[in-house]
């Protein structure tokens, strides 16, 4: 078991409400993606979960708050945005210093160095590391205690495509072993491949929480293409159940209802269907639609407003 339960998390900086009444659960055996536009409160939420910022609400790990855990590193591995590396302390020694007070031996240190692919530079100094190498060292630190829970803020930051694939496989594998993985990222295509569940926030508030598939299928940008010799009767039957219908290429494109609802409505009206095809929105489309009104920082350049393409 490794259940994370966050309840009513909140944080205000001055007059700015950065996190507002966020509650969610991260289940064992799954990767939960944490999405939100820049400045929406993801890092602040993760810090609150770990008791690193003072704020409202509580987060428990199998019922225990982070600050109440006996050996926190053995329960929860965390990678936050700020890298607490000493630039001239060798990578392996950095990990040994984190490991020793937690009763973790040097063998585990070498194991995690190997897992993150830094064996060749384990005597190197993080001050000379690339962004991606520093990120791998941070992931190694998070894994040191073989924790059943991982909280990772933008772990793919700075990783090259091979590194991103490696990280995806690692996190999926850790989740398959029954661990809880809570991970933020701006890489939506990557998140679509990685996550089972999503927590989506905007301006500190919950916008969506649940399986990735539900989030995508609820997007109004998804559609169903229908071909039927009875279109004249089918279109009004679909509009009667709340669908929007547009003619397209000899058939119709239907939005606002699922393919199952289209099939059921046709069956109920005794109408024939020759084609019923679902076109799901991408995670990126669903995310932009869900967060469109809650962007904290909005550029003025909009290609559709006459910008250079
Ligand atoms: N220490 C702080 N003092 C004042 N305001 C802060 C502080 N930390 C964060 N904020 C503000 O709180 C809001 C949420 O910031 P946070 O870093 O949690 O967002 P984020 O979703 O992680 O952003 P990004 O995706 O850009 O990393 C922002 O408006 C930010 O400016």
Mean of all residue-level pLDDT scores:
90
Major sheet size, sense and barrel closure = 6 strands, mixed
Instruction: Indicate the percent of residues in helices.
Output: 25-40%
Overall tally of structural domains: 2
The global form is elongated
Q: Give the distance, in angstroms, between the N- and C-terminal Cα atoms.
A: 51 Å
GO molecular function, one term: ATP binding
InterPro entries: AAA+_ATPase (IPR003593), ABC_transporter-like_ATP-bd (IPR003439), P-loop_NTPase (IPR027417)
Protein name: ATP-binding cassette domain-containing protein
Domain ABC transporter: 4-228
Question: How would you describe this protein?
Answer:
The chain has 309 residues and is an alpha/beta fold. The chain has 2 domains: 214 residues, Rossmann fold, CATH 3.40.50.300; 62 residues, Alpha-Beta Plaits (2-Layer Sandwich), CATH 3.30.70.980. 33% of the residues lie in helices and 27% in strands. It is built from 11 helices and 14 strands. A 6-stranded mixed β-sheet has the order 6-7-8-3-9-10, sandwiched between helices. A 4-stranded antiparallel β-sheet has the order 2-1-4-5. A 4-stranded antiparallel β-sheet has the order 12-13-11-14, covered by helices on one side. A hairpin with a 2-residue loop joins strand 12 and strand 13. 37% of the residues are buried. It binds adenosine-5'-triphosphate. Adenosine-5'-triphosphate binds next to strand 2 and helix 1. Keywords: ATP-binding, Nucleotide-binding, Transport. Belongs to the ABC transporter superfamily. This is ATP-binding cassette domain-containing protein. It comes from Aeromicrobium endophyticum.
